[in-house]
Each structure stands twice: as C-alpha cells, then as structure tokens.
Specification:
The structure holds two protein chains of two kinds. Chain A is mainly α. Helices cover about 70% and strands about 0% of the residues of chain A. Chain A has a two-stranded antiparallel sheet. In chain A, helix 1 crosses helix 3 and helix 3 crosses helix 13. The longest helix of chain A has about 35 residues. The radius of gyration of chain A is 20 Å and the shape is globular. Chain B is about 35% helix and about 25% strand. Chain B contains eleven helices and twelve strands. In chain B, the strands form three sheets. In chain B, strands 6-7-8-3-9-10 form a six-stranded mixed sheet, with helices on both faces. The longest helix of chain B has 16 residues. Chain B is globular, with a radius of gyration of 20 Å. The relative contact order of chain B is 0.14. Classes of the chains: A mainly alpha, B alpha/beta. The interface between A and B is medium-sized, with 28 and 36 residues.
C-alpha cells in the first residue's frame, strides 16, 4: 500500500545519492579536485533570482582554475547527464506502464529514430537543412511520434497494441532512412555515428536549460498522473468503469513521455537502456505503484547516467556514453532476470 | 418496486459489432432496489447489454439511462459514481496488493491533487470486509486464485459506492460457498436500496436470488419477469434449444431447471416436456 512518507524517504535518499555522485563525478578527471572544493565551487556557481536580478548567494574563496574546471567544464556535462537520465527514467516508466509491456522503452513510438533522422540529416547535409542539430532532432522526434499516434488512432481511440506495432514499423522505416543517409555521409560519417551512439561531451549550460525547461513541466504531469497510470494498469475497460477518461489520459501520458524522450535525445543522442532498465530495477525495489515508481525511477535514471558518463569520461579513450550504459546495464539486467522474477513485469 | 422511477432503463437498444446484430431492440427497466438476472445461451448478448450500461459499448440506436441520465452523455467519472461493474475477468498485470486494487475503486471520488480521505478509507475497509477479502488485503493480486480475484473485483466495485451494480458472471469461478455468499451479498445490497443487474449462467442461482429474470437469446429479449413466469419449459426451449425439466427445490422452494440430454429421462420425455408434466405443475402452484 502506498505511503506518502515512503515516497518522501525514497526520493530524499535517492536525491542525496545523486547529489553526492555529482560532486564526486566533478572531482575526478585529468585534474583531480577535492570533493569539498567541488562542493564550494558548485555553491559559488549557484544563482538565485531575487528582486534585484540574479544573485550568487555564496562566495567561497577557491582557486580560479578549480572554479572554472568545475562550473564551466565538468558541471554542465554532469548536470546534462543527470537531467537527461531523469527524463529517460520518467519516460521509460510511463511507457512501460502505458503499454503494460516490459519491453517498452522511451523510444517505442519512434521518437528516437525520428530524432536520429533529423540529426543525421543536419550532420550529413548541413547545407540542405536550415536548423541547428538539436532543433532538427527535436522536430524529427515529435513528427515521428505524432505520425505513429495518427496512424494508430481511429475514431478517437488509440489501441495500445496498434500503437506498439505502428511504432515498430515507423522505427524500421526511419532506420532505413538513417542508414541510407549514412551511406552518403562521407567525411561526416564519424560524427553522425558518434551522435547516434549517445553522447554528453558536447554539453553546455544552454543545453541543460533546454532539457530542464521541458523536464520540469513534463515531470510534473507524470507525477500528477501517476495514480491514473496505476488505474490504467488494470486494463483500459476496467479503468473506464472505475471512472478514468481513458483516451484523454493516454494522450496526456503519451505527450509527456514523448516530449521528455525527444528533448533528451535531441541534446544527447540515442542513449539506450536507461529508460528500459531503470524502471524495471526500481519496480523490483519499490513495487509497481507509480506514485513512488515515477519519482524514484527518475532519480535513479539521473544517477545511473551520471555514473555511466563518468566512466565513459575516465576511460583511456573517451567512449560514447550510450555504449557504457549498454555495457553496464545489460549484464546487470540479465543478472536480475535470472535472479528475480522480472518477466512478470 | 415498480411504483418508483426505474434506476436503469434500456430503451430500444440495438448494438452492431462487425456487421452482426449483437443486440436487437432490447427494452428493459430495472427498478431501484431490485436484482435482475440476465440469462441466456452463450453469445446471446448478455455481456454486451451490461457494457451498454457502463459506457463501454455505445448503442447503434436507442439509449441507456441511469436515473434518467443518458449514459452516452455522462463523463467516465460521473458514470463510475453511478454504476459499478464487476467484470468477468481482468488482467491485473503488475502485482499490486489487494487493498491497492480495491482503493482504485475510489478513482471517481477523488480529484487529481486531492489526498486520501477518511471516507475513502471507510469505503475500502467496508468493501474488503463485506467480500471476505480483508484477510488477504496485503497480498499481491497475482498470488490469488481465480475465485479470490473475482471477489477482489467485487470489493473494488463496492468501494465505488455506486447505486447501480453490474455483474458479469460474478459466480463463474467461485466455489458453491462463495457463490451463495456473493449472491446473498447482492441481495442484501438490494435491500439497502441498490440496484443490481447480473449476467448469470446458472439458472438455478438466478431463480433463487433474483427478483426478476430477463431471458435473452440471439440479441433479443425472449421474456422478462419473475423467475416463475420466465423460466418455463417453452421459453427455455425457445432460448436454449434444449429440453428442460422445471421443478421446485424441496428445501429453498426456488425453481430448479434441469437440462435433459438424450436418454436422460426415466420416463417418456414428452411427459415432462414444456408446460406439461408434474414438476412444472408443482412450480406454478406456488
């Protein structure tokens, strides 16, 4: 049974873990910085809005180089990893609940492949596409999601099974387009492949801002609708008979999950496995109730991605983080699959 | 019972699904505080009729009204406060515990940001106790037997605190003890003023626990009225296409229907067929 205190305790605990991990991640790299100095630098970088404009409430005296390394080089990337991980964790949870399918992940309705078409088009044919990479990816993601939704809808109803199949078909089609463009990529092939693998090394505060601008309202929607998501798990007909406006709720959930995935993919490429594995793991730990699952999967997603990206950053040659999430996530998931009853979802 | 305005009205309801007439001009009224059984052969349209009353199926023509409000024009939440449904079976995919499932019956009584109120707690506890599911309230639904799950769905419907209750085969997977317990509970709910419509295969249970029986076959209403008027040999042969013997139960006094197979009878079948024969006479004497 759901307890509000339980939600607060789990969310508080996981937030602390994420914050500590972010400090530790910012302290490691080619130049090691003591975590306490990192903490001070982070507080120095903090700005709060007041009546007289943005104000830095803290002014610890630390070395200028440390301050720059932390707040200009490492922190944007870590913050981007955290916010993208949170977005993917929420989107994955919503999609798995929505589809009542353990294989559902945030890209299930074509969002990621749509983003890939947009991004690869900009990389391969920069002269032909008048958008920046991020906007092209974001637009591609949304066009794909809307197309899949429209194809699967008939007479105001969108059967989940049809949506799933339409998503798979559109993903295949868009994947073919991406492959075709890669054939003609020439010199830009490496950049395109790198983008496709998922990456956080091009992080900037402005990208963090874009993700947060979408994340905050959409996370709010997912939290507000978490009880509806529980009810939907009983099946759409039962959900209707206990008083849920099923089709409207499905649309709202789909929009929030798609926007979260689209913004994550558009700044960081296709980072696999976060949205698939994290909700599963959290469901094993905290149970199936979305009122606790949504916030905990969000925070765990952020934590997992920051950890994976730190590992990617520290290797002898920097790896795209998508490879690391898959390398870490897949064996862990297989272990859980053998060890516990994950297949019952 | 018929002096008050009916709680549920099916007014000339026709439903077509995939070019088949599933229901054909069904007109039926259910008075408040009464229990109506829908009986009829497989595929007769009983479940579809129930589904028009909770808004899952929209009639092609005709209207279904709850307290004079057309179902088609009522929002899902408003509908769920008026009519609760016990489905035949449900897929409870993720493993919620029983209490959480029953609490979902409160969905229509809560707003999105509203917390859990004392009234919600009371309704859930009462529903758990009444259906004898309180003993496994904290167990995951997946660990229950089919019959136990059915009682949980009954509890969820009771937690909705709706004046009208629709039940689709509520006794199908129950043992004889819980069959009788469930239908007795429906009777006592009716005594408290609630209205119930139940699709039931077991004619004997229907006859024993329901005020009225509506016999449906091929999407049309064959007969409606008190069990003794509806469950006649002629009606049953028309609906089911099988010879039956209708008699009176020696203990409960309720009608019992026995379907005959070839060679079942100890005497000539013609003696016991239709309206003739001693068992039938006994039941009409009541």
């Amino acid at each position: 049974m759901y307890r509000r205190a339980q939600v607060i305790a789990w969310s508080g605990g996981l937030s602390t873990v994420l914050l500590v991990l972010m400090v530790l991640a910012a302290s490691v790299g080619t130049v090691a910085i003591h975590p306490i100095v990192v903490g001070k630098a982070m507080l120095n970088a903090l700005v709060v809005p007041t009546l007289s404009g943005w104000v830095h409430p803290f002014g610890f005296a630390i070395a200028e180089t440390s301050q720059v390394i932390v707040s200009e080089l490492r922190l944007p990337r870590i913050a981007l990893g955290a916010s993208v991980g949170v977005a993917l964790g929420i989107a994955g949870t919503v999609m798995q609940g929505f589809f009542r399918n353990p294989m559902a992940d945030p890209s299930i309705i074509g969002v990621s492949t749509g983003a890939a078409v947009g991004a690869v088009a900009v990389i391969v044919f920069p002269f032909a596409v008048p958008f920046s990479l991020q906007w092209a990816a974001f637009a591609g993601a949304l066009v794909a999601a809307v197309a899949v939704y429209a194809i699967a809808s008939q007479g105001g109803r969108t059967p989940v099974a049809t949506l799933l199949l339409a998503g798979v078909a559109v993903q295949t089609l868009l994947g073919a387009i991406v492959s075709y463009m890669l054939l003609h990529a020439g010199d830009s092939l490496q950049r395109a492949v790198y983008w496709l693998m998922g990456h956080l090394h091009t992080a900037s505060w402005s990208k963090v801002g874009i993700v947060v601008a979408v994340l905050v309202p959409m996370a709010g929607v997912a939290l507000l609708y978490s009880r509806d998501l529980n009810v939907l798990l009983m099946g759409e007909e039962d959900a209707h008979t206990v008083g849920l406006e099923v089709e409207r709720t499905k649309r709202i959930l789909l929009v929030s999950a798609s926007l979260l995935t689209a913004v994550a993919v558009s700044v960081a490429g296709v980072i696999g496995f976060v949205g698939l594995v994290v909700p599963h793991v959290m469901r094993l730990i905290v149970g199936p109730d979305h009122r606790i699952l949504v916030p905990t999967a969000a925070l765990a997603g952020g934590t997992f991605l920051v950890a994976a990206d730190t590992a990617a950053r520290l290797g002898p040659a920097e790896l795209p983080v998508g490879i690391v999430t898959a390398l870490l996530g897949a064996p862990f998931f297989l272990y859980l699959l053998r060890d516990r009853e994950v297949h019952r979802l | 019972m018929t002096t008050e305005a009916p709680a549920l009205v099916f007014d000339d309801v026709s439903v077509r699904l995939d070019d088949t007439n599933v229901l054909d001009s069904v007109t039926l009224e259910v008075g408040p505080g009464s229990v109506l059984a829908l009986v009829g052969p497989n595929g007769a349209g009983k479940t579809t009729l129930i589904r028009t009353a909770n808004g899952l199926v929209e009639p092609e023509t005709g209207t279904v009204r709850l307290d004079d409000e057309p179902v088609a024009r009522t929002s899902a939440a408003a509908l769920a406060r008026r009519v609760a449904t016990v489905p035949q079976e449900t897929t409870l995919g993720f493993d919620f515990d029983v209490r959480s499932i029953v609490a979902m019956g409160r969905t229509a009584h809560r707003t999105r940001v509203d917390g859990w109120h004392e009234g919600d707690d009371r309704a859930v506890t009462a529903a758990l106790e009444r259906t004898e599911t309180a003993e496994f309230a904290d167990r995951p639904v997946g660990s229950l037997s089919g019959g136990e799950r059915q009682r949980v769905l009954m509890a969820r419907a009771l937690a909705q605190e709706a004046p009208v209750l629709l039940l689709d085969e509520p006794t199908a997977s129950l043992d004889i003890n819980h069959q009788v317990a469930t239908l007795s509970m429906v009777r006592s709910l009716a005594a408290e003023g609630r209205t119930a419509v139940a699709a039931i295969h077991d004619l004997n249970l229907a006859a024993r626990f329901c005020d009225e029986i509506a016999l449906v076959a091929d999407g049309s209403l064959v007969a409606v009225g008190p069990p003794v008027d509806v469950l006649t040999g002629a009606n049953l042969t028309a609906a089911y296409g099988v010879e039956t013997v209708v008699s009176e139960h020696p203990v409960t006094g309720a009608i019992i229907v026995t379907a005959l197979a070839d060679g079942d009878s100890r005497g000539p079948v013609s003696d016991r067929r239709g309206q003739t024969g001693p068992p039938e006479t006994a039941s009409t004497d009541r």
